[in-house]
From TrEMBL:
Keywords carried by this UniProt record: Membrane, Transmembrane, Transmembrane helix
Species this chain originates from: Pontibacter virosus
Domain DUF7088 positions: 45-153
Protein's UniProt name: Gliding-associated putative ABC transporter substrate-binding component GldG
Keyword Transmembrane helix among UniProt keywords: yes
Record-annotated membrane-spanning stretches: 20-39, 535-558
Transmembrane helix in keyword set: yes
Domain ABC-type uncharacterised transport system per the UniProt entry, residue ranges: 202-500
InterPro entries: ABC_transp_unknown, DUF7088, Motility-assoc_ABC-rel_GldG
Amino acid sequence: MVTEQATIPKSKRSSDLTRFLIALAAIVLLNVLAANFFFRLDLTEDKRYTISPVTKQMLSQLPEPVFVEVYLEGEFPAGFKRLQQSVRETLDEFRIYSGGNVRYEFIDPNDISDEKQRTELFQKLAASGIQPTNLRANESGKQVERLVFPGARVLYKGKETGVMLLKGNLAASPDERLNQSVEGVEYELATAIRKMAFQGNKTIGYISGQGQLETQYVTDLLGSLQEFYRVARGELRNIPSLDGLDLIIIAKPTEAFTEADKYKIDQFIMNGGKAVFFVDALNANMDSVGAGGMFAMPYNLNLDDMLFRYGVRLNPTMIMDLNSGFIPIVTGYMGERPQTEMVNWRFYPLLNTFSKHPITRNIDAVYSKFIGTMDTVRADGIRKTPLVYTSVYSRVMQVPVPLTLEEARMEVKPEQYQAGPQPVGYLLEGAFASLFRNRRAPEGAANPQVRETGVPTKIAVFSDGDLVRNEVNPRTGQAYELGFDRYNNVTFANRELAMNTIHYLLDSEGLINVRSKEIQLRPLDRVRVKEERTYWQLLNLVAPIMLLGLFGVVRYYLRKRRYERF
């Protein structure tokens, strides 16, 4: 019996060779196209790996290399690893879109063996605004605490700035706060690079002359603004007009504005200028309260008609809130030495309810003092967005409001605090109508031709002048950081709120809108994970092996049937 050996036809060999050559040519062509036409695909639902167009444009215009030192190297729990990975991925994207002009390095500060050098680095990072946090981790089966600096330093042409990457609201859960930090990575790094590499060409005017906060009480705010913008200061009565400015700040005025002063502000806004008002409706201060008490009465600022025309009204009220700050009160004496105790002062509401607007998204609590309520009124064509609210446990006090330290010692009656969240800050956008419509310009006006309808612009109004007031060390005269509560050694997000507001008003490119990025947190059910742990471990270990074996058997059987010859 003779068995013929199976042979592969010549035509079959030629066909296989042709297919191989076509596949090889397609691969080469694909690589050539990929080298010349760059693109990236983000298939995630929330586009978590997508860099915004405004960031891409900024990175493409970098004149010289930027170096970023990230202090998130090492072994971390899963949440911090996610933040670490997000920073790495974002910087990879920055490097690509900048044409290699963004370079980075991850550093573990705890790896420095020399104790003196390690201490110096810790001090340098803290001075850059990168605050350390104690992180509990499991190492070799033991619970240990590590000092972590969740931030980065951005270096450019001999200059540097610190970037805090662990942000978010402290009232949120640890997982939620880490997720908020991940959402803000692109904005924080892009803002730092813009600050270093691109000189700001916008000018901000800090207006004085009506009893506004003196320079020593806005040192931190003005210093922070100077990192991004040019800042000018001057008394309104001595300035013919506000031409040449892009934005003005009016912080806690205590004296009346004249009609001529209001005309300058009004026409500045009509011509497209931006403005931020931090205004108290009532006169209240702790010096008078501590001296025996006082009644808070309305200021006569002569601003009500102008703000009303723009769409908001500051009410002659004061808010008390169960969610509030603390002040020291003398509770007794030991010999001649007074004994103090920190007590809840409900006239200092902690603002921790925000809209999802880019200005306030994911920021921490803001400290307010003697804050009042606000209403919106009809203003055609103006979009009004509330930004900040008090807590649900608030109480609205009508004028005159008695202020005495005895209030801090009184027993709280919860039924009195049922007013609900009260808006205390508004963003107004649109083409405003002039206060001087159908009126003559005040005598002596630099430009007596009234512009009655403005071009589209933006203004923001907050019902507390102290939101931007930094405390001053009574011994040294040095200004504290804006939002720092020296009695409780806590820093609130007042500076972030003010800076975000001004960035939004002046940001024609739209970088501030990157703060709107939202990444959905999808936590696992920990109880179910614990109950079904063995099942899922077996499924993940055994199922792939079984599928691979089944695939091999089926493939072997099909090949045998195809090539078997008798």
